[in-house]
Amino acid sequence: MRLKSLAIVAALALTTALAGCSTDGVSRMFSNDYGGRVDAGYQLPTIPISKVPRQFHRQIVRYETNEAPGTVIVDTGPKFLYLVQPDGKAMRYGIGVGREGFEWQGTSRVAAKREWPVWTPPSAMIKRQPELAKWAGGMPGGPKNALGARALYLYNKGGDTGYRLHGTPEWNSIGKAMSSGCIRLMNQDIIDLYNRVDVGAKVIVQ
């Protein structure tokens, strides 16, 4: 009987692992939520999530902070974005951050949200990368757009910071420092974050 019970426990554990979602009372993984889908008429490709380090998969974690639920905290060192939730928890997402020379810190708020946004490269970026000049008037939204499926626009007391929380088709850039300062998430993750974050939400980048 004991061997049979152990076999059942092992089978249940294997089923949970294959589902890509585990619960241990502290964290919950959402590794099974990166499949392809149609979103606003666009085909969102499947992310080969097994190739993304596990710590960067979306998950609920313990997170102690004095910030109110709904606050977004970006920790650029370990490359995590936390959406604060009640009861000492947060939804954690893996992110890509600014490369050397493009890092930044500060507090801002979400002033606007856009689905499949138009991307207009700044003039300074076009100067560094002349091939982007063709998009000076704006690159239409779509699966190849640099802002991905969603964008949250960050403003502070001085107005538009120029920085965004946005999606990216380059899933293999998550966990790396290679952007021009914006905080990028996998497209399936930015859609999830977009649906949870309100306009006006506080955003802390540290």
Automatic annotation (TrEMBL):
GO molecular function, one term: glycosyltransferase activity
Keyword terms, alphabetized: Cell shape, Cell wall biogenesis/degradation, Glycosyltransferase, Hydrolase, Lipoprotein, Peptidoglycan synthesis, Signal, Transferase
Domain L,D-TPase catalytic: 70-206
UniProt-listed CDD domains: YkuD_like
Source taxon at top rank: Bacteria
InterPro entries to which the protein is assigned, alphabetical: LD-transpeptidase, LD_TPept_cat_dom, Transpep_catalytic_dom
Protein's UniProt keywords contain Metal-binding: no
Pfam families: YkuD
Biological process per Gene Ontology, one example term: peptidoglycan-protein cross-linking
Pathway(s) this gene product operates in, as recorded in its UniProt entry: Cell wall biogenesis; peptidoglycan biosynthesis
Active site as annotated: H166, C182
Signal peptide: 1-19
Gene3D superfamilies attached to this UniProt entry: L,D-transpeptidase catalytic domain-like
Gene Ontology cellular component terms for the protein in this record: extracellular region
PANTHER family: L,D-TRANSPEPTIDASE, L,D-TRANSPEPTIDASE ERFK_SRFK-RELATED
Family classification: Belongs to the YkuD family.
Official protein name in the record: Lipoprotein-anchoring transpeptidase ErfK/SrfK
